[in-house]
Specification:
Number of helices: 5
Order of helices and strands: HHEHEHEEEEEEEHEEEEEEE
Strand content: 25-35%
Largest sheet: 5 strands, mixed
Shape: elongated
Number of strands: 16
Length: about 280
Amino acid sequence: MARDSAPDRRSQVVIVGARPHPLRDIYHLLLRTSWTRAIVFLASIYVAMNLVFAACYWRLGGVANMSGSFEDAFFFSVQTMATIGYGGMYPQSEIANVLMTIESICGVFVTAIFTGLAFSKFARANARIVFSRHVVIGPHDGVKMLMLRIGNDRHDSVLDARVRCVLTRTVHTAEGQVFYRLVDLKLARDVAPVLSRAFVVMHPIDEDSPLHGLTADDFAEQEVEVLVSVSGMDETTMGPVHAVHTYEDDAILHDHRLGDVLSERPDGRLVMDVRRFHDVEAV
C-alpha cells in the first residue's frame, strides 16, 4: 500500500503580509523535516560555532602546543566544546582561559538543545495514514453515498481513530461577496475502534446532506473540496497521531464505487488485497 505523494499545490493558500518568526519556528521546522536535513542543519551549526571560536584562538593565541595554524585552533575548539580534552593542547594565558570558559558554557547549551531535539524527533509518533486517491459518489445498499478509504500503513494499528469530513465550497452571499463556506459532513460512522489497513468513510447523501441535488458540474462550478482529518493513538508508542488530506473537485468521481479489497478463500478465510486500495469502479 503506497503512501500518497505531497498534496496538490493548488489547495495550499499563499500567505502574504505575515511577519516571519524564523527563530520562533525553527524548532517546529526541525521536528517536521527529515532526519537527513535535521542532521545536516545541526552539524552545520556545530561546525560554524567551532569555526568562530577557532578564529578567536588563532587570533588571540595563548594555547600551549598550538603550532599557530588555523587547523590546530579548530581542533582545539572541537575538543573544548565536546569536553574531550586530550591534553595535547591546553590554554595557558588568561585570555585563552576566558575564551575556553565561554565556549564550554556554549557547548553545554548546544549539547542540551541537540539532545532534546533528537529525543523529541525519536519520541514523536508520525502518522502513516493513507487516503484513497479519489472520493467516489455512488449507490451503496440502496443509498447514494460519498465514500473514501483510509488505512494505516504500519504493521500496528491506530486506536480510537476519529474521522471528520468538512466540505468547502465557493458561494456568493446576498451582498454579492465571494465566501468560502465550511460545512461538516455527517458520517455513517466517524470512529474506528481499531484502524488497521482499510476503513471506508461514508457520508449518506440524503435530503439533509449539503451535497443533496448537486451534480458534477455543480461541484466544479462551486470548487468543492473535501477535507478529511484523522486523529487517534498509535498502538505501539501510545502517542497521538494526526493526518489531514484534501480532495479537490477533480478528485471526486461521480457514479463510481470503491474497488473491493476483501475476498474470501474457499476455506472461509478472508484476504485483504491492499494493492487494490486506490481502485475505483464505474457504476
